[in-house]
Amino acid sequence: MGERPARHEAMRPATGNGELVLDQFLPYRLSVLSNRISNAIAREYSRRFALSVTEWRVMAVLGHAPNLSAGEVARRTAMDKVAVSRAVASLIASGRLLRRLDAGDRRRSVLRLSKAGDAIHDQIAQLALGFERQLLGELDTAERSRLFRLLDRLDELELRAEAVAAEAD
Question: Is there a contact between 78 and 136 (Cβ–Cβ < 8 Å)?
Answer without folding.
Answer: no
